[in-house]
Amino acid sequence: MLKAINTSYLVPFDGSFRISVASTSPPQNVSSDEDCKQKVKACVKELSKIQEILYAHDYHSVLLIFQAMDSAGKDGTIRAVLSGLNPAGCQVYSFKQPSKEELDHDFLWRSACRLPERGKIGVFNRSYYEEVLVVRVHPELLRKQRLKQVVELDEIWADRYRAIRDHELHLAKSGTLILKFWLNVSKEEQRKRFLSRLDEPEKNWKFSEGDVKERAYWDDYMQAYEAALRETSRPWAPWYAIPADNKSYMRLCVAETILANVKTLDLHYPKVSSEVKLRFEELRALLQSSSSKNADN
Q1: What is the predicted pLDDT for the residue at 293?
Q2: Using N-to-C axis directions, what is the helix angle for 153-173 and 218-232, rounded to 10°?
Q3: What's the whole-number mean pLDDT along residues 245-256?
Q4: What residues have CB less than 8 Å from 75, skipping those under 6 apart?
Q5: Distances in Å between the alpha carbon of 196 and those of 218, 219, 285?
Q6: 219-237 CB burial, b ≥16 within 10 A, e <16
Q7: 289: which of 60, 205, 259, 270 is 20 to 30 A away, CA to CA?
Q8: DSSP codes, 49-71
């Protein structure tokens, strides 16, 4: 199983994570936006080569999970990181309000149906973590899930953290590389981005009154994120709390983290058996003979 690459943004596995010390801004010596973009392109180019081997090897899959407050930049980051990859080998799913069918199953069901198969890269834009984030902030949503019996809320969250840990451990043991990114945007930067959606006509479509209303629950969301990251960051399914106030730097951090972790997989092209190799020359002669006959005709 994966042993997570350590970076300054890796959420520790001992439950000591605190949002109060998690930076939303890049370090002072950060590269320029243009330099960050060029470095992202270099990462994607290298990741594209590895993707080919991942597919051919057909032993591992990669699952990238993105969680964040609204306007943190999930969509743009996913687009930037996957821009140079083979789309046939990528699967991106966005999880919004659950449907009636999804509510008729356990909370992991709808995402389990969308897990990437071996050889492919899967991306969850939001995920089963919504069940310990938005549902924790708005516990009235539990009524729609028709739980079998009434239990204390703290017990519900503890049970779900445990289910998530077990689920991810099972996936990791089955060959899935799980990397989870919390794009940590500040409340002030979110305000600015919401205002830009109002001020710039081409961004008006992104604006939602509901997003603004959710800002009133900011502190509740931060508590929910802190608890979720503390309870579920593990070596085989690590969380990375990425500063999101600077989009170029954020995307570079994500790209570099993905690349570094994927490189730890023992990926290689399948080896051809000696029996098959013995027939290579025979098959080569057959193909060349076929070409000569077609030329004569």
Answers
A1: 58
A2: 40
A3: 97
A4: 125
A5: 20, 23, 65
A6: eebbebbbbbbbbbbbebb
A7: 270
A8: HHHHHHHHH-S-EEEEEEEESTT
Q: Where are the alpha helices (DSSP H) in the chain?
A: 33-57, 74-82, 100-103, 109-112, 134-137, 153-173, 187-199, 209-214, 218-232, 247-262, 274-278, 280-296
Residues paired with residue 18 on neighbouring β-strands, in sequence order: none
| Greatest alpha-carbon span in the chain | 82
Place of tokens 């999880």: 95
How many residues are present in the chain? 297
Contact of 186 with 69, CB cutoff 8 Å: no
CB atoms inside a 10 Å sphere around CB 185: 22
Q: What's the predicted TM-score (pTM) here?
A: 0.92
Task: Answer for the pair 187, 215: CB distance below 8 angstroms, yes or no.
Answer: yes
For residue 85, the SS3 value is coil
Domains of the chain (ranges; CATH) run: 19-296 (3.40.50.300)
Q: What is the pLDDT of residues 217-228, one digit of tens each?
A: 999 999 999 999
Rg of the chain in Å (alpha carbons): 23
The C-alpha atoms of residue 179 and residue 238 are separated, in whole angstroms, by: 6
Helix 247-262, helix 74-82: angle, nearest 10 = 50
142-177 pLDDT, tens digit per residue, is: 988 888 766 789 999 999 999 999 999 999 999 999
**Nearest to 72, CA basis, from 284, 222, 271, 257:** 222
